[in-house]
Design brief:
Elements lengths: L4 E8 L2 E8 L10 H9 L4 E6 L3 H14 L4 E6 L2 H13 L7 E5 H9 L24 E13 L24 E3 L5 H10 L2 H12 L4 E2 L3 H9 L5 E6 L4 H5 L4 E3 L3 E11 L6 H12 L1 H9 L19 E4 L2 H5 L1 H12 L3
Parallel strand pairs: 3-4, 3-5, 7-8, 7-9, 11-12
Antiparallel strand pairs: 1-2, 5-11, 6-9, 6-10, 6-11
């Protein structure tokens, strides 16, 4: 045990007494990001990044990382999350590990963990995050929020919803649109009310209002702007700030939202382990999260605000356990709304 001995002398009745104070153990200092960077430089200067970061965001975020850690270049392998996961699994079965780090939908991070391709470890920066946006092997790098939205020309001020349950009111009959694949709403309501039974009861009231479903969240936003519906039950929050700036007659709910997680995980047996860990730590840090925010993503770090108003006050996140049960939840969702 590392113990500091502190001697203190004081006089009592002309006699000098010396006391030995045993201080608490001194914890070992953790490795800084810059110390880790020096190790990463010795690995060849490449980060194999399997990520779904859209090019419009990647062009702003990745160069900042490369400038901050000069000498390291990001090899961004860009594809959909399911294709990146399938690629990593195929490579592993062929006896090769090429990816250093994964950053895409939590569903596919969980899939890779099931194949034992992910390191079960979190960066120290993860301690700043709430429990619903991290697991034992993944940490949310950014979040996508399902919220309610409405056309301000068709919805009166006193009608504007403050929570999802407001859409259960019969006043919304034949006035709602939604995305047929968004069973996350069921999961979010389960987290909010602590019961599938209560969540299902609420969704049945939504269904009674004859929700009209259209595939694609961008299409939902355009239909709303055009006045083809009064309100949207499952829209993305990031679709609205810029539309509003351009004068679109829409409003959206920021009191609460359902969070779909884009997670970061380090590949097990990564060819550049220190470089992979450097990315994971930087992305998790306030510094990295601010870069993600400036790059157009909604950061998951509670102390870092998004560049635009996209993060609701209350967050019901779809976590790893929810993902594992998603097919079951999806079946219930489809039954309620009679979706095929």
């Amino acid at each position: 045990m590392n113990v500091r001995r502190v001697f203190s002398g004081f006089a009592l009745g002309g006699v000098l007494l010396t006391t030995l104070l045993l201080a608490a153990p001194v914890p070992a200092r953790g490795e800084t990001i810059d110390e880790l960077y020096k190790k990463a430089l010795k690995e060849g200067g490449t980060l194999n990044f399997y990520g779904t970061l859209a090019q419009i965001n990647a062009q702003k975020i990745l160069p900042v990382f490369e400038k901050r850690f000069a000498g390291i270049k990001v090899n961004h392998v860009d594809a959909t999350a399911d294709k990146l996961a399938a690629r990593a699994i195929t490579e592993a079965r062929g006896g090769r590990v090429i990816a250093d780090v994964f950053q895409f939908s939590l569903e596919n991070i969980v899939q890779l963990y099931g194949q034992k391709l992910v390191l079960e470890k979190l960066p120290p920066e993860a301690s700043e995050y709430p429990a619903n946006v991290k697991g034992s092997y993944w940490l949310a790098s950014d979040l996508i929020f399902i919220i309610g939205a409405w056309n301000t020309n068709l919805v009166k001020k006193d009608e504007e919803p403050r929570q999802f349950e407001d859409f259960a009111d019969p006043r919304w009959k034949n006035r709602l649109i939604g995305e047929p694949r968004d069973a996350e709403l069921l999961i979010g309501l389960m987290h909010k009310h602590g019961s599938q039974e209560k969540a299902v009861a609420i969704l049945r009231k939504f269904a009674a209002n004859n929700v009209e479903f259209h595939k694609g969240h961008s299409q939902l936003a355009e239909l709303l702007v055009a006045g083809q519906a009064a309100a949207c039950l499952t829209c993305y929050s990031h679709h609205y700030p810029r539309r509003i700036q351009k004068g679109a007659p829409v409003g959206y709910m920021l009191t609460e939202g359902i969070a779909a997680i884009v997670g970061t995980a380090v590949a097990k047996d990564a060819p550049h382990p220190n470089t992979a860990w450097l990315w994971a730590r930087w992305v998790a840090s306030e510094e990295g999260q601010k870069v993600f925010s400036e790059g157009g993503r909604t950061p998951s770090h509670p102390k870092v605000e998004p560049r635009e108003k996209t993060r609701p006050q209350k967050i019901y996140a779809v976590g790893a356990d929810d993902v594992k049960e998603f097919s079951r939840h999806e079946k219930v969702w489809k039954e309620i709304f009679r979706l095929r």
